[in-house]
Amino acid sequence: MSKVSSSGLIVAILFLTGCNEQANNPLENAPPYPIQDTVLHKVVSEYCIDCHNPIDKKGKLDLQSKLDGHLNDYPFVWHEVSLALANNEMPPKDKDGVKRPDQETYQRVSAWLNERFNHKPEGKN
To answer: Could you confirm whether the keyword Nucleus appears in this record (predicted)?
Structure first.
């Protein structure tokens, strides 16, 4: 008999009851944040799209096709990217020949993303 993780069970219950990601959109009340000409665009273009493109889709993730829009178009994808970059998890450390950003670049892109994901609408604390 296999065990189901408690977090997996919670996610399944929330999905089945209609309490999915849409209810917790981190950019729901935020202004549109274009990605073009930003540190995020530069970092993803330079370090991520060799693996996360429409053809390869490593981890079933295509970031290349999401670069022309706004952060708000795919808030959950970009939130996951922000966590991976903040923790220096991507690009992978153990993969030979994969270029990784320096620490200052990780900090700059993480700060840019955090500023937007922590946006507080006017009049709210």
So the answer is: no
